[in-house]
């Protein structure tokens, strides 16, 4: 099969389309014919080698964390899916590879595709929707009437997180650039801060929750806008010792993460704030809940543009430029 691969980690690695073996199907697996995939910042970070200690991929590696397609075959223990079913997923860690013609995915990571979405629209959803759900519902347990600040509202995670937070009844503030202010308001944000004109730290105060997706500077500012008892959840780091334990990482790596996150954890404790690092995980049951929200119209996918499979490298470069509105999709079939 054709697949977009990287052969080494590094900032200069671009990747290329090559012939790769068809993925092996395990008893609990589903072989999916890929119709569309989507690009995430995570793909860029993996290509650069930023997660090689936590996610040691064997080279050559196929990138891609979002998929929509149709079931070809199922393993002997699979019960919820059959050949011909339209499905979508964020494959589990170490078994990614959606920039390809086929992929084998665990049944537990898969969900039925929303009937009202195209393959391209469905492919844009899994990683960002699961991230939003795991931050807002699973970790923060966001309640109606609470105030949440979601950074980078025009990005992939931000665009879905705003919609989900509004569905849950929260007051939502976010940041974006001048040209996207009206667009982000249309997603449902109550307060939109143009980061080119204002610093969110000077505008916001006494918030219950921050979803941080930016750098260390924004992370520290986020502490100052939270009320005592508030929650800072970061999807961009630094990882914590609790994350290391959950991932079963080796003791030396646990100590590295302890040092990396010591500063923000210490400042959070001093302010009476909970700090959590979240590295989203594949979860078909959660994704099936998102299917219901998408089919009801409570959530809508946000697709910036679609690239043909032959231009996967260009799609990655587009995301690397940092000006996307929602998600970039790759049409594979």
From TrEMBL:
Record InterPro entries: ADH-like_N, ER, GroES-like_sf, NAD(P)-bd_dom_sf, YIM1/Zinc_Alcohol_DH_Fams
A Pfam family per the record: ADH_N
Ranges where the Enoyl reductase (ER) domain occurs: 15-330
Origin: domain of life: Bacteria
GO MF annotations, alphabetized: oxidoreductase activity
SMART domains: PKS_ER (SM00829)
UniProt-recorded name of the protein: NADP-dependent oxidoreductase
Organism: Pseudoduganella plicata
